Amino acid sequence: MYHVDINCDLGESFGRFKLGEQEEILKYVTSANIACGFHSGDPTVMRETVKLAIDNGVKIGAHPGLPDLNGFGRREMAITPQEGYDMVVYQIGALQGFLATFKEEMQHVKPHGALYNMAAKDRALAEAIAQAVYDVSPSLILFGLANSELTRAGEKIGLRTAHEFFADRTYQADGSLTSRSQPDAMITDRVQSAAQVIKAVKEGKVLTQQQTEVALRAHTVCIHGDGEHALAFAQYLKETLENNQITLAAIGRRGE
pLDDT tens-digit profile of 190-204? Predict the structure, then answer.
């Protein structure tokens, strides 16, 4: 039997700025990555998102990013591994406070945006992030780009580590994501996207922009909740995976 976790980045509104249809999209995902105030999110949004996730039976993870609201955490910054460690510990702690008020446990940690992409290639930063997660709680699951420095660092330190696949992104021959600065970085055709996910889950492969196949693992699949047709996309992906005998379940509920 095939099974996969579907995760989505949520809680990315702040103040009067509203992003995405959180309440609806939570019906179609199994794990939620909640922004912790650095790249987006604020305390009230964090609390509201935690409650919505719990109400929908969705497992919760911290989504720490770089301190860059204007750039939505997608612009690289020159940080040391120690600074990366401190940022991750700080943001996990912020979300844990809200989880404690609901008597809910955190399932995972998934870095956001530029921090995620930097850690995928920078071994020292990846190891600092993995150490931060481990030091807060060795039972947390670390989400990282499949076959990256971040997943290797998580496995090395002894964390349960989930190799992540992106439903709506294209890939390069080295297994990296196509840069968002490129016009073909995003997949907008939901049929193409679902087919890519099914191939990754069942075959452990992705067809790259260079028309070569790259082997990778897909323990958890990311969908973005801020796209123009995000809700319809999430619903279609869930139905298509289930119709292809792929069971959806939060990774923390599976005994892998």
Answer: 999 999 999 999 999
